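Forum: Protein Structure Q&A
Topic: Joint prediction for protein chains with partners

I've read a bunch of threads here and the consensus seems to be that you should model interacting components together rather than docking separate models afterwards. I'd like to see that in practice. Below is the full input, 370 residues plus whatever partners are listed. Could one of the regulars post the assembled result?
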Amino acid sequence: MIVAERKNVPELIDIIKEHKNILVLGCGTCVTVCLAGGEREVSIISSALRIASKVRGLDLKVEELTIERQCDNIFIEQAADAINRNDAVLSLGCGAGVQAIAERYANKPVYAGLNTKFLGILEEHGIWTEKCAACGACVLHEYGGICPVTRCAKHLLNGPCGGSREDRCEVRPDRACAWQLIYQRLKNIGQLERLKKIELPKDWNASLSGGPRVIIREDHRI
Amino acid sequence: MNLKEFEPKIVAFCCHYCAYAAADLAGSMRLQYPANIRIIRTPCTGRLEIEYFLKALENGADGVIVAGCEEGSCHFKEGNLAARRRVNYTGELLAESGLEKERVRMVNVSAANARRLVDAINEMVENVRRLGPNPLKEKTPMKQEICP
Ligand code: SF4
Ligand code: SF4
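Posted by a regular:
Agreed with the consensus. Here's the joint model:
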């Protein structure tokens, strides 16, 4: 899922301070699961904004709404009235959600209330970790299902770098060395042979480096 | 507002298994606690959410005190530990928003320790009295409010 984190209150106030009526718009999907932009976070952030605006002597009115998915027309429609009656939208969706709303409301300022961080998973209560950088051409099969693009700090496809200590990455000792994990995993599944192959340079055109990506499925077009 | 006249209103979320019983015991023992406290009984402090504390303050409470069982003796094992983390988070959020984080506080008391509850309440009332009224209560901006 997409993992995001809230911006701090002073930054949010700075973003919205010129407006009087703000809709704080949550999203019921990824950002609900990562506890950043669901119904509860909408309520918490809205309270904080009301408190901050009163303390600062601003006259801010905050309306709260959460829709199922902010990146989907069917659900965005349900927010139409609330969006129309407010001066601006502070979206607690991921970056895609914010832009989906903005593109559909040409004359409405739409702001991001979250910092969208990464594609990852819930590791344990309150801890999320990055697993995929959406490189566009997945090579997980070569590495026992552990992504070197994302989880090796140097993105090495022919690792390790030689700097790891025990099982720790030299760049961030609080992180596991991805190559240690890859080695261990390939050993466990009897595929250590794979490491003998030299991986050729990756074609980064499939990644964001090749520009924003589009997927067109003719079989689904109407 | 004249600070001398200021009587803070404090919402006290009290766990049914400890602090609420301690408040009851305080009554039987004729231990007085100030009338500034509005007690709300909860099945466990772990049931309390950050939203509740914020809403209380948004709606004019001058402070919020959360009273749960002693650490290690929560009736539901770890509810009071979760509550403490939420109270801490609320404090940080208040500080970010421009309110004093001391306006929300967690205490741990056993059902038998009425004295400790009363002390904690007294302390909270005095702390909040020192902080002054919740600036959100008045429509006028805070700047005017603190200059009588
Ligand atoms: S190889 Fe690319 S697509 Fe596959 S997990 Fe890593 S970043 Fe994601
Ligand atoms: S120590 Fe391991 S994870 Fe860290 S940069 Fe080197 S190979 Fe990559």
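Residues 1 and 145 of chain B are 7 Å apart (CA to CA).
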